[in-house]
Amino acid sequence: MTRLHPMFTQRAAGVLLHATSLPGGHGIGDLGPGARTFIDWMRSSGLSLWQMLPIGPVGRGNSPYSGRSAFAGEPLLISIHELIKDGLLPASAAHCPAELNGARTRYAAARRFKLPRFRTAFENFHRSSRPRSKAYQSFLSSNRSWLHGWCDAAGGEPDEQIFLQYIFDRQWQSLRRYANRRDVRLVGDLPIFVDVDCADMQQHPELFLLDREGRPKSLTGAPPDDFSRDGQLWGHPHYRWSAHRDENWKWWTSRFRQAFQRFDSVRLDHFLGFVRLWHIPLGERTARNGRWRSTPGRELLEVLEKRLGRLPIIAEDLGVKTSAVDRLRDDFGFPGMRILQWAFGSTTSGDLPHNHPIQSVVYPGTHDNETATGWFRHLDRKERERFKAYAGPMNSPAEGMTRLAFTSPAVWAICQMQDLLELSPGTRMNRPGVPTGNWTWRLSPGKLSSPQARKLHQLVESSGRLPGATS
Question: Domain coordinates of the chain in residue numbers?
């Protein structure tokens, strides 16, 4: 692995928690005080990796994986408290109805509360000298390639949309500096696809596989398998790879460059798609009648590495892999993923901890999986017995799974916040295939306790995953 990024040479432990799930008021987690409190709690716990889901403007079903732009940030993540600190809103702007302080993300209510305040902040901003500042002008220049396309897609007043993206970027970079000073690294999530009605397809239709009417010729998905007899119909447009090659991979380079400006490392979603993709004809109701088409993933990654240096990428290599996928991952030195919830169906599973390669990232489960508590409840007798025998004495299945992850040979171990806190199945983040009711779980402020931090710190230290520890 000659291209191994230095980030993946040090054992570390982390947490999977999306920014919308942070505690606080205003109906949704954001980049303000709640995020900083969470980072402080991570530091006291010995956790040094904070993995999030995609942070672009949400689309269908409020899914972060149906983003409306490959470049813009979700405005709802902008903190009202930070706007007050910047002098763009009065202190009274933070007062909100009790209904917005609940345990679930309320997207519609958060928009009703935040958007009028964003408008006021925008008006105050433009009445000041700040639009002429070096920082604002630099932001306009650096992001010109996508800003205006996003404004057209987002609607409303273009200057206000640009202002919101500028504020998002300022708050994000401030949060990242705060995290890095506390030995916490931010891990992002870069979906391979964009949504069918995204700003990028409107701005650059030539980069997508469309017919003369501008409709996708084929849609993304996965073929039938043991878990889905009809396959999976995801519904994203496919890329016109020849056009990306003709423009010398400019769009992809800009996308990855921005991702590494926001995050210290990135999980590359659907890594299998950088070898081949399943094309489903438009109009099909299932994914049965598709066909495989190869993709120039190796060529793209070689260009990215030449332009951006060694790539701090986690390859989301889950699913039915081929030897070509393994070769591509290993040739670029990307750690793959191991999921503990898949480990106990047999005694030979590659997901069992003793089979984990050092260059891998282990998760008890991801945002698409049940919590460890819920997973354990649904195990059959043999799987439950295997898990108990393997995990040894434990107070709960979640505790056992966390310990197995942290003591794994894998260089990084990342656990859902729900599993670190041993929470119930009702806290699950996403149920794939269910179009509504997902992406709404939020962390209660009282859960970030000192006793829990001390307990985690002991496990992190004993498993050799403290920042700066030698493996």
Answer: 6-198+238-274+294-462
Which residue, 25, 170, 143, is CA-closest to 86?
170
Q: Which is catalytic among the residues 183, 299, 368, 461?
A: 368
Confidence of residue 2 (pLDDT cuts 50, 70, 90): low
Catalytic residue, chosen from 30, 269, 351, 419, is 269
Catalytic position from the list 200, 316, 317, 419: 316
Q: Which CATH number fits domain 6-198+238-274+294-462: 3.40.50.720, 3.20.20.80, 3.20.20.30, 3.30.160.270?
A: 3.20.20.80
Question: Does residue 269 carry a catalytic annotation?
Answer: yes
pTM: 0.97
Whether residue 171 contacts residue 163, with contact meaning beta carbons closer than 8 Å, is answered with: no
Tell me what the mean pLDDT of segment 181-195 comes to: 96
On the CB side of 428, how many CA atoms lie within 13 Å of its CA? 17
Per residue in 327-383, pLDDT (tens digit) is 999 999 999 999 999 999 999 999 999 999 999 999 999 999 999 999 999 999 999
Q: Classify 38 as helix, strand or coil.
A: helix
